Amino acid sequence: MLTSCGTPVIGLGYIGLPTAAFIASKGIKVIGVDVNERYVEQINKGEVPFYEPDFEASLTGVVHKGLLVAQTETPHADAYIVAVPTPFNDDYSVDTKFIEAAAQQIARELKGGELVVLESTSPPGTTEKMAEFILQQRTDLTATDGRPNSVYFAHAPERVLPGRIMVEMAENDRVIGGLTPVGGEMARDLYATFSNGELLITDARTAELAKLTENSFRDVNIAFANELSIICDKLGIDVWELIELANHHPRVNILQPGPGVGGHCIAVDPWFIVAAAPEEARLIRWAREVNDSKPRYVIGKVLTKAAKFKAPVIAALGIAFKADIDDLRESPSLEIVRELAIELPAASIRVVEPNVASLPERLGGLANVQQQDLDTAIDAADIVLLLVDHSPFKRVDRGRLEEKVVIDMKGVWR
Ligand code: SAJ
Question: Quick one: which of 79, 154, 137 has its CA closest to 113?
Fold first, then answer.
């Protein structure tokens, strides 16, 4: 199945790069393809572009052994794995420009007999569209099983959890949806060379919806927890204790509330279902709206507490989208800090984010926002706003918070 030149993994982002490194760690030669030249150079030096536990050793190891080589050109190969971003448009429909760009590169190289696997999270029908796009460029090829000039397509959605990518890459079961039966079988054979998980074969559209369903399930459950937290605030009940108690029931497993839902997965993917079936996806849409409105609720809480200070000093702990990572994509905490800085011009906001070296552009130009270390920020603060449950925050001595107004959105200091 695999060519001697290596399997191209196209798109070397948060998922594509760990995927490429993981496959290479199995002794399989991988060509990492990305349009960003600087990124390609960095990877070829074994430099890790983002933090992910256990990833650095894995990446540097495979680069130094020559098992992973990054380049900007897509080579010919027997099998391609596409892991490019799938952002959404204003109406929440998918923007396939990155898939199309990858498909265009692949189309030029095809001879017949190859497999193209789409890993990017996509709405139902996207793998089919990718195939159509390739076949429009290459009218000499077909996607019909068994012909000498056939190209085969499949969708194998990634399901790894940021923060546990290297573990889950090896262990997670994989849903593999063939556009045709042979496409599914070929993709199964490819994934069997590096995955320890069960390989579950289906059709491409079901695989696409399965991935969206997993993330929507989590989104709806987090929305339930977030709604509970607002109900509990109103009723003067500790939501964390409430959830802990309810979860003792053998068939109840409520997730945790927080400042909102971030990241480029759970905050995005349910919208693809809503866009595909707008009338029918009522609960899924509503959950998105509940979670998206949580940052505004947090801002309201802070504004109420800040009203008693002329020029409040606010220690904002955490701007990453979740605990112990450096990823700021779609982060509700980051937006909360930004909005507070704009709405409270007299306030001084001290951002504590141990996982990033400097504040992102989104907070740039806000004169009343600065990055500080944990101790300095807490000592100076009138209000301590905990937004992310990063490990160092859990170790803060509670005694130091006694004189402060504490708003703990993750229940860390209960
Ligand atoms: N969150 C809560 N409460 C919780 C759990 C999470 O507020 O109880 C928040 C987090 O703080 C974060 C957001 O939800 O802002 C998403 O975090 P997450 O850890 O739930 O998920 P992601 O986005 O890091 O990864 C998800 C995973 N999907 C599922 O668990 C169903 C992962 O397996 C997927 O591969 C990934 O999306 C993806 O790439 O789609």
Answer: 79
pTM score, two decimals?
A: 0.94
Residue nearest to atom 34 of ligand 1 (CA): 159
Closest CA to 231 of 220, 243, 219: 243
In short, whether 162's Cβ falls inside 6 Å of ligand 1 is: yes
Closest ligand 1 atom, residue 269 Cα: 40
To the nearest 10 degrees (0 to 180), the angle between helices 16-25 and 55-64 is 60
Distance separating alpha carbons of residues 177 and 188, to the nearest angstrom: 9
Write down all domains in the chain, each with its CATH number in brackets.
Answer: 7-197 (3.40.50.720), 214-408 (3.40.50.720)
Atom of ligand 1 nearest to the CA of 168: 33
DSSP 8-state symbol, 411: -
Average pLDDT of the residues in 81-103 = 94
Q: What is the Å distance from ligand 1's center to 320 Cα?
A: 13
CA 134 – CA 250 distance, rounded (Å): 50
| pLDDT tens string 106-118 | 999 999 999 999 9
